[in-house]
Structures are given as structure tokens and as C-alpha cells.
Amino acid sequence: MKPFKSAIAVVVLSAIALTGCSSSDSSGTAGAGAAIDCSPSDTPVTLSFTSWIPGIEGVVEVWNKSNPDIQVKVQTGPNGNSGTYQNFFNQLKAGNAPDLGQVEYDALPNFRVQDGLTNIAACQDVADAESTFIPWAWNQVSFGEEGAAYGIPQDTGPMALFYRSDLFKENNIAVPTTWEEFEAAAVEVRKTGSYITNFSQNDVNQFAGLVWQTGDTWFKNDGDKWEVALAGTGSTTVAKYWQDLIDRDLVSSYPGWTSEWDNAYNTGKVWSWNSAVWGANSIASGAPDTAGNWSVAPMPQWKKDDNTSGNWGGSSTVVFTGSEHPYEASKFALWLNTSSESLTMLNESANLYPATTAGLDLPSLKNGVEFFGDQKIYDVFAASASQVSSTFVWGPTMTQTYNSVSDGFKAAVTGKGTLLDSLKSAQDATIKELTTQSIPVAE
Amino acid sequence: MNKQATSPSKPSSRRREPAITYSQARGPREQMLPRMGAMLIMVVFAFYFLIPIWWLFVSATKSKGDLTSTNPLWFSEVNFFENVGNVLTYRDGVFLRWIGNSLAYAGGGALVATVLAGMCGYALAKYSFKGRELIFNVILGGVLVPATALALPLFLMFSQINATNTFWAVFLPSIVSPFGVYLTRIYAGSSVPDELMEAARLDGASEVRTFFSVSVKLMFPALVTVFLFQFVAIWNNFFLPLIMLRDEANFPVTLGLYTWNSQINQIPELRMYVLVGALLSIIPLIVAFLFLQRFWRSGLGAGSVK
Where in the sequence is the signal peptide annotated (chain A) (predicted)? Predict the structure, then answer.
């Protein structure tokens, strides 16, 4: 893994070097935010679309069958941060980017500052569709600007608490509804020899989701300058809270997505997981021996009787700069992310959770799930999706930010430094990175 | 016997004889300790290198559930053939296609690279012409440039001619092996005697014919080495395909497995497929080594000059 990371770093650096010293040489592209011509083509078009969603080919086939004049060709690759984003940047540089691509919310600002995205709000269909999406999800692609759409929201990851209902019940521990109760429960659970949950040092986005719940944000952009606030009030509250749990050995610290981590859940060593809707699938496959014993509850709240939630993950379909067919491309992107036919297929093949209000009522999301003792878990997530704050904004250098935070977290769980220190030093590192890339920073 | 013509892995036994008698004369007790030390170090390292492969092998035989819940270094219920079947049939056998692609990239690429490097190294060693050292030094400089650093420039160049996302985008850069030129030049210099080339010329053979029918045979161990190195390098080359290819049908097996691995969060079954796939994907490398090893070892050229 290490040599690969440094290999990526080399390419990232050289890409930055290349983009840094060249003025725009991609011809015929509208600058970010400039009005684009969104008129239909007179002749049939073929669009290229890069996505790593498993089973996307099947969905596109359905579209191709009923739209002979707008044919879509799927290209694939590893997930965004594992190489596909870098490929997009290389392709944008070389002028052969696909018409459409999958970009996660946290990577959108990066593409935007590099002028990689077409603002498709000029397309009437897109402007009309705004109200069909969950407002905060739309905010992720519009960056909060009026009349802007740098992509179409595809899926979201509203968060909730997955917990072992059998173990909580056997040990007479109430399922926590506030973070205060969560802490008290953590003490009780620790007495049984297990941990209430795991603090995953490498899932910085999970931590971001917890910060998101407080209504705080990590970045702000006033259309010109970027403000970095990794250690704001919300972050500080969350960081101190978890630091305390780590210090008192009330949470475990297995690195996420490893076999030890799976095993900890599978053997009942860890009882709960603050995760997103797609986590239902992860837990079911990582802890197969515990089938039927899990339930889902709303996220614990900071204030009693509040209804706030966070988001972890989610992606959008964007039209890249240089696409000659923004009209057809946005038409396809809208169909892909709003039609119940497509949303159902995406949900079945890749567990995507729709970003449209209507999508939350898909029949496939109304059934009880066996792994969770037939609980209708998606009702909990639908409620969660409506409680996510619209204020959270991602920064333009998230890869670096994630790495900085995660390096600090890794040290913090072994007792060197604290979570808050990690956020503070990541704050400095991020500002430095933005300055290096000549992205304006608000002081 | 031409002492320079011995193969790297089998030095002339005659010259080592005194050393052997010397150590035998000192008796077994003094000899035991360093030998055991050396053995111990080798055993430790062999263990160290083999453990991951053992883990991979054991894991590949397990069912999805047993993978995380049972001892990682020992078998539980053996599920190997079912796992292999699953990998081979997943998504219409795309895995087999990737293996085929890898064989084409690595086999074809290594073959062409070996021929080119062999000819180049031979020419640099056996013909004197103006600028010979300069060319050699430039090629030697090429050894120092990591392939990773070249991937992005190559991508931009291939973009100019609209050749990204094609078989050639990975194949063409793979047929260049500066290290191969270096090795074959050194080897040709010491293993192909000028007298033999002279004799071939006197018999009326053209230079090309001399190369292919006389020199290649003498250079064979070096060529096999170059072929193996290049085969492994292309087989394991992951970065270039990652940057060049978008179409799953052109992926080599490394990129394919990596793609699967990056989708584990969405399709957890893939974890098992990646493990089994990784195990299957090292089989061609093992076969190539076992098969070519004997060519590598045999010291050709010995006794060619009386």
C-alpha cells in the first residue's frame, strides 16, 4: 500500500506541476460558472461515462434501449480516490475527459477549483429538477450558489446508529439517544468486557459526519476565498468527546475495514457503529455470525429531543468541462439519478441510497431487512436524511486533508497527541496546501 | 575453457576446489557455526517471504464467513474449488479475460523487449562506432528513471494520438527495457568471442544471421534473464494500466483485482474474489520461473572456443 501511495503522490505532484504552469489550453471550454450553451444536438450523440458503481452497465443498457439518439458508453475503473479522480484530472489536462463522470461530494470542490466541471444549471431540465432532490444534497452540488449545478446528486449516506439489540437487552443497557447517554452506556458495556463502539482512525469521513451532525462545517467558500475551519466549535466538541472515550478505554480502535475490525463485530467484542445507510451491507457481510441481532436507531443527539443527523459518503454525476453535449449529458444524468427504474436498479446492484425525496419511498426501501431482525431500517435512514444540515462544505484538497487528519488520528489512538491536536495541525497543513496550489485562502 | 563465459549462477567449479579443500581441512566443528548461522538467517527469511503467500493460500480456501472468524494461518472448512469457480464465473468470466490480457502484455511485451534489448546490447558490445559510449550512457540513465514517473507523460503523449485506452497504450511502453540493454551488452561482451563472429563471417554469414544463429545461442542465459525480469515487471506493472485504461476488457489482472478491491465496501463478496484472484494470478509467474530456470542455469558458451 505504501509504495502505491507514494506513487500516487508523485503523479499528483506532477499533475499539479503541469496544471500550475500551463494556462488554459483546452479549447472551447466555458470557464467555471460561465453560461454554457445547453441546446440539443441535431444528430445522434454518443456520450462516455466513467463510473465505478458495480452493475452500472446494466442500468445504462436500459437507458440505451429507450434512447437510440443518446447512447451512453460506460468506462470503469477503481473507486475515485483509488485512482479514478487522478485519471479524470489527467484526462482534463489532455483534453479527453469523458462527458460524464462519477464524483463524490467531498471531491467536487477539487474538480471545481481546477475548472473541471460544467455548470449545467443553464439546462432547463436541470433547473427544474432542483426541487426533486433532498435540499442538503442539492447544496453539495450547487455549493450553495443560486442557479448553479456542478453535478446531479446521485446518492447519500445519512447516518444512524447500528447496534446489537440482543446484547444491549441482555445486559439491561438502554439504547442511548443522546451522546451523554452514549457515554454512560459505554461505561456499562465496558464492564462486560466489550466496547460500545470502535473509533476508526482511518475513517476521517466518519468523523466528518459526526461534525456534520453538529451543524458545523470544515470549509467555507464565499465564491472567491476559502475559509478552513477544521477545528471549529463543532469539531472541538466531537474531538474532545471521543478523545475522552479513547483515554478512558471505553472505545476500541481497530482500523476500519480490516479483518480485525470485522472480527471484532462478528464476535460481539464491539456493540455498535455510527455509520451511514450503506453500512447495513458492510456490517451484514463483515459480521455474518451476528445476523438477526442488529437494529438501527437514530444517531445520538447532543441536546435531548434534538433531531440532527450527519452524512457519510454519497456521490454525484458530473458533466466534465469540454463535453460537447451538456444537454444530452444532463438529460442522462437526471434520468440516472431520479427515475425510479434506475434508482431501484442502483439500489439493488450497489446499495446506493437515492438523493431524491421521492427515491426514499422506493418499494425496495420499504421492506424489513432480515439481518436486522426484519426491522424496516430504511425508515430510520429516511428520517435521518431529512435531518442532515445543509451547511457542511468540503474543501478543494480533501485528499491531503484526509491524510493529515488520519495521520494525527493514528498517533492519537496510540496515546501520542489528541484528536483535537490532529485537527489543528491538519488545519495548518491544509492552508499550506491551498496556498501552494494558489487557491485563495481567507485569513 | 573461457572463464568469462560461465553463467552467473554457476561459477566454474574448478576454481573453487581449493576453497573447498581448505574448509574441509579445518574440520567440521569450526565449519558448523557459520553454516548454521547462514542457514538460520535463510530459514528466517524464507519464512518471512513465504508467510504472506501461505496466508493467501489458506485464505483462498476459506468461505467468506470463516475468513474473518478463524485462524488466519490455518485451514478451516475447505472451500477452494467453489471459490475458484466463483471468481472465474463472476461477471461472465471477466477474470479470465484479465489473465489473458496480462499474458498478452507480459508475454508479448517481454518477448519483443528481449529481442530489442538483445540486439541493442549486442550491437553496443560487439561493434565499435562513433557515439557508442554516449548511447550506452543515455540508456544507462534510462535505468534510473522510475517507470512511475513516465506514466503521466506517456498518457499525455498517447492522448495526442488518441491511443489511450487501447491495448497498445500499455504494450508499446512495455517493450523498452534499458536494464535489458545494459545486461545484454555486458554479457555479449564477455560471452561472444570475436573469433567466433570472425569465423561466421568467413563462412559467409551476414551480420544478422550471425546474431540470430550464433550469438543469440551464446547470449541465451542473459536473454532468459532479461525475459524473466521484463515479464515480471510487466505483469506487476500496475500504474501504467491504471492511468491508460478505462475499458474493463483491456485491463491486466493487477488493475482488475485492484478495481475489485476498491469496491469491497459496496460488494463485500469481492473481498474473497480478490484473495482467490491474487492467488491465481501468481501462478503464471511461478510457471514462467520454473520453466525458464533451467535455461537460466545452464552455462552456455562453455567450450565454444577451443
Answer: 1-24
